[in-house]
Design a protein that fits this description.
The chain has helices at residues 37-49, 122-125, 128-142, 144-170, 176-215, 234-240, 242-248, 269-272, 275-297, 308-311, 314-326, 339-348, and strands at 2-12, 15-21, 26-30, 69-77, 80-88, 92-96, 99-100, 113-116, 221-226, 259-264, 267-268, 302-305, 332-336, 354-359, 362-365. By secondary structure, it is of the alpha/beta class. A hairpin with a 2-residue loop joins β10 and β11. The longest helix is centred in the middle third of the chain and has 40 residues, at 176-215. The chain is globular and about 70 Å long.
Length: 366
């Protein structure tokens, strides 16, 4: 199990100076909206992934009128201690046990993490980009080669799109550079496609299991992996689609168009699922994410839950906490506006929780 023992924050969002020590498996940050509870969770997420969950532009995460932020987390991981330090001034710096990372992406997977926030409903109601990002973040925590290929694929797409624009504006017929980019896209894209397909075979089984528990077997749901590579040869699709790409000045074919299609009673969930059903979809996706990381990494990820009692009805929230406190989950951090409500729920499920009150960026241990 991963256990976050200490958290130090300087100038991150509205958090000027924070030094916290955690002794419990279950931690709650309680306080009114806008005081910094979610920012505390985001700092923990940042230390795992190397970027904010809510705003990937580092400069915008610095406290107003300051010119830097620092984050430090001290963890126990299996039988070892690990310290992660993240800082941003004019550039980002990340160290693990004092050693600078050559590639910032190398932090991904060191401290596996799952987060549930009110904004995550876009996984159900939003466009395909949200679901691809969700899928990519899980697999990237499990497989370094996947992340390497994904970064290279996305870089190549940008380069290819820029070249398409040049060819269109110059009315040029020189496609030699496009062919180089096509070769790179086929190599990296095919790898990503196979990884996604293999991953989803396991992931969907876990998703169905959790959705069944949450909905008490009352609803029929499906997940389908939609990809242009399923029934097409990537090289042929790129060649045959070149004229369309040239006219639109962007790459219209590839794994950057993939989607996870979600259905309820054979209808698209984004249009036909009720708010309660959408929440059930979301919870089942996140619980399946936790399970598969734990299974493959052989370690329990940190679990962050933001404002679940305000966004879920009390029964659904209690059911979620009952699931994650009884089924081998690790350290859990949650936020709520009502410390008494959290205390009552944890008493009901027979667990002790450590509560920190948050007021305008200041944190007091109850």
């Amino acid at each position: 199990m991963i256990f976050l023992k200490k958290l130090n924050i300087a100038n991150f969002k509205n958090l000027k100076s924070v030094e916290l020590s955690f002794k419990n498996k279950y931690i709650c940050f309680a306080g009114n909206n806008g005081v910094g509870k979610t920012n505390l969770l985001d700092s923990i997420y940042y230390l795992s992934i190397g970027k904010s969950y809510f705003n990937s532009i580092d400069k915008q995460n610095i406290l107003h009128k300051e010119n830097y932020f620092n984050l430090k987390g001290s963890y126990s991981r299996k039988d070892e201690n690990i310290e992660i330090f993240c800082a941003f001034t004019n550039r980002k710096k990340i160290t693990i046990n004092g050693n600078n990372l050559e590639k910032l992406s190398d932090i991904v997977g060191e401290i596996p993490i799952v987060i549930v926030t009110p904004y995550d409903n876009t996984l159900i109601t939003g466009g395909s980009e949200e679901r691809r990002r969700f899928l990519d973040m899980i697999i990237s925590q499990l497989d370094k080669n996947y992340l390497i290929n994904l970064v290279e694929y996305n870089r190549t797409i940008k380069q290819r799109n820029a070249q398409l624009k040049i060819l269109f504006e110059n009315r040029s017929k020189d496609t030699s550079l496009i062919e180089v980019y096509n070769t790179k896209l086929i190599e990296t894209g095919s790898f990503i496609f196979e990884k996604r397909k293999s991953f989803l075979e396991n992931f969907t089984t876990k998703f169905y299991n959790y959705y069944s528990i949450i909905s008490e077997n009352k609803e029929d749901v499906q997940i389908a992996y939609a990809s242009q590579l399923k029934n097409n040869d990537f090289e042929e699709v790129l060649k045959s689609g070149f004229e369309k790409d040239l006219i639109t000045q962007r790459s219209n074919f590839g794994i950057h168009k993939d989607d996870l299609e979600l259905f309820i009673f054979e209808h698209p969930a984004k249009k036909f699922a009720s708010q309660g059903q959408q929440k059930s979809f979301l919870l089942a996706l996140k619980l399946a994410q936790f399970d598969i990381i734990k299974e493959i990494k052989k370690i329990k990820p940190l679990f962050l839950l933001d404002d679940i009692f305000d966004r879920l009805d009390k029964n659904r929230a209690t059911q979620l906490l009952d699931i994650i406190t009884k089924n081998g989950y690790g350290q859990i951090f949650l936020t709520d506006t009502n410390a008494t409500r959290v205390n009552d729920v944890f008493k009901k499920i027979g667990k002790e929780i450590e509560i920190f009150n948050v007021e305008n960026g200041n944190i007091i241990n109850n």
